[in-house]
Amino acid sequence: MLAGRIRRRRVGGITDVVLSALFDCDRVVYRYDAVIAVNGVSLSVQAGTRVALLGANGSGKSTLLRLLDGLYYPDSGSISFDGNHLEREHLEQDEFAFAFRRRVGLVFQNPDVQLFNPTVFDELAFGPLQLRWERERILDRVNETLDLLEIGHLRNRPPHRLSGGEKKRVALASVLVLDPEVLLLDEPTAALDPRSQSQIIDLLIGWGEGNKTVITATHDLGLVEDIADYCYLLQNGKVASEGKPEQVLCDQALLASANLIHAHRHYHGTGISPHVHPHTHPHSHE
Amino acid sequence: MKSFVERTLRGLLTTAEYAATAEQMAISRGALQRVDPRVKVAGILGLIVTAVASRRLAAIGGLFVLALILAMVSRIPLGRLGVWVWTPVLLFTGAIGVPAIFLTPGRAVAAWGGIVLTEPGIRGAAFLISRAETAATLSALLVLTTPWPWVLKALRIFRCPLVMVAILGMTYRYIFVILQTALDMFESRKSRTVGVLAASERRRLAASTAGVLLSKSLLLAGDVHLAMRSRGFQGEVYLLQDFRAVAADWCWLAGFAAVVLVALRMSF
Asked: How far apart are CA B184 and CA A242, in angstroms?
């Protein structure tokens, strides 16, 4: 079973109880054939924190999330969750896999890969059924989650007939129904209209009354301060920088080198004026 | 003459429209739509087996008429059945059955020149076509009056192998994703195409589209498997069975059983 590691440290005659990191990555390397997607990443995530993995397309964010979810295994280095190494032989054991899957949920970037059931209701029931919950508990929990995400009216619809925003909400609901302690999100607002984006962000901010661990991979800098207490900036599969959002977002040169912001030009009155900022939220130019 | 790209686009759109219409019929408020899916699967399967096993044309004809009545009370337009079911089945079975009319040895019924129509030939063709049309009409009734997920659940209740049910369900679901991808690809191609493509160019386009779609579907299949594992899938699929049969469903089941018994009695 997964059990948290507790360290005790004695400072000035007082014993503190310090919980170890929930996720601990140590020099993780992962390759797709000849292409190195994650190249020596070390990071740790404490329970109850909200972390953003920032990076441009192809920087290794999605791969890192899949590694954290135990779907891929590092070629070298190690990943541990709550003091237990995430290794193939562990995740092939029912007891360990059930405990891990109950505690960690991943929402994929493309909802189409996540919506494989015939109806929205079945989609939400899939996870609890795999974890062998009792029927009544499944029905209650699915109905609660449908209400939480305001998608009750879609319950009997086939997922492939939904709009992009609806699919994203159903994909999120299919993971939230398990009430995981850790939520891994891959570009949760990608390709959504502003209203759907805002609904998902509001939901994530309020989810679990802020006590859950949320790791979000995104290149949308406009979201970061709302969804993260701490950021890792990934570039070419490596951690290029880390820190609090306000620190990382202030480093314009670093953001530009990571392709997260770019210089561009607009007409201003009668002339053209160059600017540098991310194109992630509505703004206007005079 | 329409270009290859436009014809392909029209074909893809027709397929999507067909699926949308079928799904709409399945949730409309007709007679069969109200019946418990388990009763429908068992009853219609019984009728199909009886139609296929029957040795009397009158019994098969009776089952076909019953299928027509069920279609009408279930608000399924007979014109649609004609286009979707009867014509393709007639063409397919006709291609096999019609030559038998002339080739099967037996008592001659009519002759023109050297061509002879034999009684066993006509009987054989009539059995083949009527059985196929009746069975296909009944199958169409099942899928047009029952949402596909419920059909799958009902099959599972009848101990249909889990792997088969899971594959059927996912195939149906991802056909639409692949269809949409193909549609996007052809629309994108159309937006950059002027005039009619040469035959060689059409072949090249069809081959490259098939290759790209295959590659995308492989990628999709890999990601879907990861998404399933991420939510606890370990190789076994579990389903929530929430059907509830009421008195009317038992009446339907009794009705199906009575028809099967009468048809079998007529046949043997």
From this structure: 40
User: ipTM of this complex > 0.85?
Assistant: no
CA distance B7 to A279: 40
Alpha-carbon distance B65 to nearest alpha carbon in chain A (angstroms): 33
Q: Say if residues A274 and A263 touch (Cβ distance below 8 Å).
A: yes
DSSP class of A57:
T
Closest-approach residue (CA) in chain A for B219? A113
Q: Does B244 touch chain A (CB under 8 A)?
A: no
Chain B residues closer than 8 Å to A175 by CB: 231
| CB neighbourhood size of A107 (10 A) | 24
Query: Own/partner pairs for A3-12, CB < 8 Å, 24+ apart?
Result: A3/A82, A3/A83, A3/A84, A4/A47, A4/A82, A4/A83, A5/A82, A5/A83
pLDDT in tens, chain A (286 residues): 444 444 444 444 444 444 568 999 999 999 998 899 999 999 999 998 999 999 988 899 999 999 999 999 999 999 999 988 998 888 888 788 888 999 999 999 999 888 888 789 989 998 999 888 999 999 999 999 999 888 999 998 888 778 888 999 999 999 999 999 999 999 988 877 888 888 888 888 877 777 889 999 998 888 888 889 999 999 999 999 999 998 888 888 888 877 777 666 656 666 655 555 554 444 444 3
Residue in B171, B173, B230 to test binding to A, most A beta-carbons within 10 Å: B230
* Residues in chain B within 8 Å Cβ distance of A139: 240, 242
For the CA atoms of A61, A228, A28, A73, the dihedral, rounded to the nearest 10 degrees, stands at -70
By C-alpha distance, the chain A residue nearest B24 is A157
Residue of A nearest to B148 (CA): A118
